[in-house]
Amino acid sequence: MRGALRPLLPALALLALWQGIVWAAAMPAFILPSPARVATALISNAGLILHHAGVTLAEVLAGLALGALAGAATALAMAVSPLARSLIRPALVLTQALPVFALAPILTLWLGYGLWSKVLMAVLIIYFPVASAFFDGLMRTPPGWTDLARVMGAPGRRILWHVRVPAAVPALASGLRLAAVYAPIGAIIGEWVGASQGLGYLMLLANGRAKIDLMFAALIVLAVMTLLLHRAVGWACDRAVARMG
Amino acid sequence: MRGALRPLLPALALLALWQGIVWAAAMPAFILPSPARVATALISNAGLILHHAGVTLAEVLAGLALGALAGAATALAMAVSPLARSLIRPALVLTQALPVFALAPILTLWLGYGLWSKVLMAVLIIYFPVASAFFDGLMRTPPGWTDLARVMGAPGRRILWHVRVPAAVPALASGLRLAAVYAPIGAIIGEWVGASQGLGYLMLLANGRAKIDLMFAALIVLAVMTLLLHRAVGWACDRAVARMG
Amino acid sequence: ADRMTLILDWFVNPDHGPILVAQELGYFDEAGLEVEIIAPADPSDPPKMAAAGKADLAVSYQPQLHLQVAEGMPLKRVGTLIATPLNCLLVLQDGPVEEIADLEGKKIGFSVAGVEEAVLGRILGTAGLTLEDVELVNVNWSLSPALMAGQVDAVIGAYRNFELNQMEIEGRPGHCFYVEEEGLPTYDELIYVANPETMDADMIRRFLGATEKAAQYIVNHPDEGWALFSGTARELQDELNEKAWADTWPRFSVTPAGLDAGRYARFEAFLHEAGLIDEVLPVSDLAVDLGAE
Amino acid sequence: MSAPAIRVTGTAFLGEAPLFSGLDFRAVAGGWTCILGPSGVGKSTLIRLIAGLETGARFDGTVAASDDAPLEGRVAWMAQQDDLLPWLSVAQNAGLGARLRGTGADAAAIAGLLRRAGLSDHAAKRPAQLSGGQRQRAALARTLMEDRPVVLLDEPFSALDARTRAEMQDLAFAMLEGRSVVLVTHDPGEAARLGSRIWLMGRDGLAEMPLPAAPPIRRVDDPGCLEVQGALLARMRGTP
Amino acid sequence: MSAPAIRVTGTAFLGEAPLFSGLDFRAVAGGWTCILGPSGVGKSTLIRLIAGLETGARFDGTVAASDDAPLEGRVAWMAQQDDLLPWLSVAQNAGLGARLRGTGADAAAIAGLLRRAGLSDHAAKRPAQLSGGQRQRAALARTLMEDRPVVLLDEPFSALDARTRAEMQDLAFAMLEGRSVVLVTHDPGEAARLGSRIWLMGRDGLAEMPLPAAPPIRRVDDPGCLEVQGALLARMRGTP
Ligand SMILES: Nc1ncnc2c1ncn2[C@@H]1O[C@H](COP(=O)(O)OP(=O)(O)OP(=O)(O)O)[C@@H](O)[C@H]1O
Ligand SMILES: Nc1ncnc2c1ncn2[C@@H]1O[C@H](COP(=O)(O)OP(=O)(O)OP(=O)(O)O)[C@@H](O)[C@H]1O
Ligand SMILES: [Mg+2]
Ligand SMILES: [Mg+2]
């Protein structure tokens, strides 16, 4: 994974841009602190940030795993049954159309303020892109392959599993790459709605205490976490797609 | 578009589920009001809701158009140039990794509290899925086609335009379908950050005033708007994909 | 007329009575002002906007002001909107918590603003408890629902003029422990803040004069005041706002420009003691009496 | 397993215009029935009708087996395009039918068949790494692995050189003994070599062609075979 | 436009093993050079090398034109798979080269060519609505629309019946007069009809085959042609 180092270049470019904005627009530090200030905050609060980052990471990973599973399962259900499709599809869109923010308080009231409300939020937010992309892929199987499988006497279930699913792996990978980026957002939203730890909580707290540099330090850690997750998932997906020939 | 009527079935199922939860879990109205209460709130506030819905719709449509354009353009840039790819891709992930809420003060500082901060939020949120899905599609052009085009002496730009882009239309469509669902979320988040009209404003206001039934009425309208948008975009995409053979 | 921009702390609600009534009665016009009122959703934004010079004036909270100035934000209190605390520790009226000491081992919900732990620590201290004896849960967006749904046993950060009425309307009445009666130095809940370097003192003086007239009008004619206030927007006309109005108008400062320097010094000392600020600043760094200048 | 004869009668329309009309196609039981005919005349369409698949044409007629049982589940089909699954190796592609039906694939049988098809060295490769003729042979092997009484082959040897083609014909003939095979081909020599019945399909319907005297499979240089080949060629070229 | 001769010398490796070694291939200037050979021997690989494309093999050698100018931009290529773009009509596919280069496609020329390829009725169809042979003819038409001195054809007539095949050979020969054409084919008759030079490609290298006396394009029943065809067939079948 030598490629993991390459984002350093754009990261540096971004840092320069950031510093440039701070100078050029004479940004006050309480709106956009300079990279140096944020770095200082990052170092002097390293332990604190690391603790909260660990909490968020656990939520994100659990949410990613469950959300990807749920999304993939939904896409499969919709792909096999036109009935399921016409029933689930609008419901699927609904899960996204109702902003999680609006539902979050309700869900939190049910699930309490522990880990699971954040995991659920991450699941909710990645469920749709995974299901949607995978489903699109499943519906685009080259007809020659399904014709062949049908003549071979394969039951629909096995056609799905051995032909349509492998053919849709690139589309699923596309969805998973999105999910890797969205899962952290879901967890953060969950933390904003109610939590006592995690990067989202830390950001709120820092903002409330007017420690904008700490807030940005947490933000940076979150961004780096997301980037790494996106890379890891992308790498795994690339391998899977390559294996699909 | 007779199919537009089919979601009525799941909508009814959802209504029943909702009413069921209200009864079974003895949900207090301040957490989850009954459908009847929400319907009443919807009717008695029809004018108000409609006004705010109109504002949000305008933001959503503008955001969708701009975000789709920006996302598609980014995907194209990444597809032609490996340099652009290694520079833009992490930045692209960053635009998603940094929760818009954290950036909101900066954005409002620049853009003020008008229409454009909401449009920008919608653009930011749909930019990534469109760019990501389209880019994935552009990188999956069957090699036989690009080989042929190269032998024909086509410059890279024209190969992109006449071969890779049409071949990636299904992937782009996949991204646009997601965007149709996310654009309203973006606008709502934008309104939450600061607005004096729009469904998001109305929802927060109603929530703050403990008029949960009004909040849910606004939510329903938002959901319906999103569903219709998703359908319209899906329909247009299906046509485009069908034309791609 | 001079144009000025005012950012409220949140959406328009009865707390903003004097501002809207001044607008309705034309007091701003009389003072030669054309006031644009902006309502944000996130209460932490307005002071930033004012400090950044994007707004001439912002509505904010005294406790936050101390933290913000300590962090170097160019802000000063220039006026007072609500002259008493609104914050309270809210429990269910028929719930298990009858006095502060009953909180031991209980869950307390809060909405992150920055000072909750300090406030709670002081309140618990009066009953011989510490923060270690309770479990704190951030319930951000929904204080009273979390309480009514039984997710937490108490919430801090609820407004006495608002959440109490909300709970009563929902049929789960609450009980309020007033923070200033439980050991906390009293303070101004809602204040006007501005950037002292860029502010136009004369314009702000005129603004405060107009709201002073409006506050007097409301105190003298609370019912007419309600009619004027609720007439500004259809969303405002409901039972909750009407009840909240009755609990709010007596708390409007009728001397919005007037500064009680002792309040600010005492609260600064309290926050320093709680470890939230590193050094104690003089009141002149925090607040200004524009009338005295 | 008894292989039925097959009869297809009817008319197919492309839009309003008939693709073929009044067709009466009969395939012999337990032997090879060959179809020759100009490009675009409807040969693949006919094959797909027998396989029970959708076609681009609207068909008005019947497809029947001589034992009156439905053909479904009794047909193996090799399409004109190879349709190999790109994520499976050649060996896995050859075992696709068993995999799809959930019965274990017979690895030894696959290995043996691939060897006879000259693909032993390529068994682990992906289809994208094969030459055109190798792909076609892989698809043929996959079809031969299907144990079905009716076998439909749509130009199965078109991408092969003469020698490999003859070998693959021998292989297919041996493997499909006793089955009813329908073969679409453009090679008159192939039809002459393999056919128990040969149809020439034209815009005006099917015409049955004379057969060599020797029973199939005939030697490539069998004189009767060469004679029939010449006659077919002349007929197809329109030089009577 | 003067058509150069082409020479390819070198060795190609598949992994460690050589695919072909010590190859010395020469294509005649302004005529048809035919390559016959068993499936998988490396014919398509050779064609792709001339076209300047990536191959599955690693090539150690040179590809040169007799005028010493680079071949890039002077080659038209018809792949073994038809590679039609599914979203374009047949006519648009035929005009793809012009479209890709941004020069206007000559609609009249396309229409004329499609007519001669027997595709007039199908000009507006999508590739998915064509028969196998029609697809191949569309790809051929697309290649013939390219105005290039060097033309590489990889089994361009394999999906066609005898008559259509002869017609397409006539068409291609007429259209490509004066160009250097490299034709890969499995049909010895085709090579005998068209070749100004015929190579037999085997695992052990290239062997040049004798030609009929008549100049190309020869009649299908030209005696010399039939004789060479028979000799080629015997040689390919390994029956000396
Ligand atoms: N991408 C690849 N990776 C590995 N091996 C490959 C690849 N492409 C082709 N080969 C191998 O290279 C050899 C030559 O292939 P090529 O396509 O040139 O054969 P060919 O002579 O054209 O055969 P055919 O007549 O069957 O088309 C074959 O054995 C094939 O398996
Ligand atoms: N999906 C479709 N939509 C419309 N027309 C189609 C479709 N598929 C095939 N056709 C047309 O039907 C006719 C018969 O096609 P078919 O594939 O059966 O021909 P064929 O005899 O197999 O030809 P070939 O030898 O070229 O493979 C052709 O004219 C073709 O254009
Ligand atoms: Mg066919
Ligand atoms: Mg080849």
From TrEMBL, chains A, B:
<keyword id="KW-1133">Transmembrane helix</keyword>
<feature type="transmembrane region" description="Helical">
    <location>
        <begin position="119"/>
        <end position="138"/>
    </location>
</feature>
<dbReference type="InterPro" id="IPR035906">
    <property type="entry name" value="MetI-like_sf"/>
</dbReference>
<dbReference type="GO" id="GO:0055085">
    <property type="term" value="P:transmembrane transport"/>
</dbReference>
<feature type="domain" description="ABC transmembrane type-1">
    <location>
        <begin position="53"/>
        <end position="233"/>
    </location>
</feature>
<keyword id="KW-0813">Transport</keyword>
<keyword id="KW-1003">Cell membrane</keyword>
<dbReference type="GO" id="GO:0005886">
    <property type="term" value="C:plasma membrane"/>
</dbReference>
<dbReference type="InterPro" id="IPR000515">
    <property type="entry name" value="MetI-like"/>
</dbReference>
<comment type="similarity">
    <text>Belongs to the binding-protein-dependent transport system permease family.</text>
</comment>
<keyword id="KW-0472">Membrane</keyword>
<keyword id="KW-0812">Transmembrane</keyword>
<dbReference type="Pfam" id="PF00528">
    <property type="entry name" value="BPD_transp_1"/>
</dbReference>
<feature type="transmembrane region" description="Helical">
    <location>
        <begin position="159"/>
        <end position="176"/>
    </location>
</feature>
<feature type="transmembrane region" description="Helical">
    <location>
        <begin position="60"/>
        <end position="80"/>
    </location>
</feature>
<protein>
    <submittedName>
        <fullName>ABC transporter permease</fullName>
    </submittedName>
</protein>
<feature type="transmembrane region" description="Helical">
    <location>
        <begin position="92"/>
        <end position="113"/>
    </location>
</feature>
<feature type="transmembrane region" description="Helical">
    <location>
        <begin position="214"/>
        <end position="233"/>
    </location>
</feature>
TrEMBL record, chains D, E:
<dbReference type="Pfam" id="PF00005">
    <property type="entry name" value="ABC_tran"/>
</dbReference>
<dbReference type="GO" id="GO:0016887">
    <property type="term" value="F:ATP hydrolysis activity"/>
</dbReference>
<dbReference type="GO" id="GO:0005524">
    <property type="term" value="F:ATP binding"/>
</dbReference>
<dbReference type="InterPro" id="IPR003439">
    <property type="entry name" value="ABC_transporter-like_ATP-bd"/>
</dbReference>
<dbReference type="InterPro" id="IPR050166">
    <property type="entry name" value="ABC_transporter_ATP-bind"/>
</dbReference>
<dbReference type="InterPro" id="IPR003593">
    <property type="entry name" value="AAA+_ATPase"/>
</dbReference>
<dbReference type="InterPro" id="IPR017871">
    <property type="entry name" value="ABC_transporter-like_CS"/>
</dbReference>
<feature type="domain" description="ABC transporter">
    <location>
        <begin position="1"/>
        <end position="228"/>
    </location>
</feature>
<dbReference type="InterPro" id="IPR027417">
    <property type="entry name" value="P-loop_NTPase"/>
</dbReference>
<protein>
    <submittedName>
        <fullName>ABC transporter ATP-binding protein</fullName>
    </submittedName>
</protein>
<keyword id="KW-0547">Nucleotide-binding</keyword>
<keyword id="KW-0813">Transport</keyword>
<comment type="similarity">
    <text>Belongs to the ABC transporter superfamily.</text>
</comment>
<keyword id="KW-0067">ATP-binding</keyword>
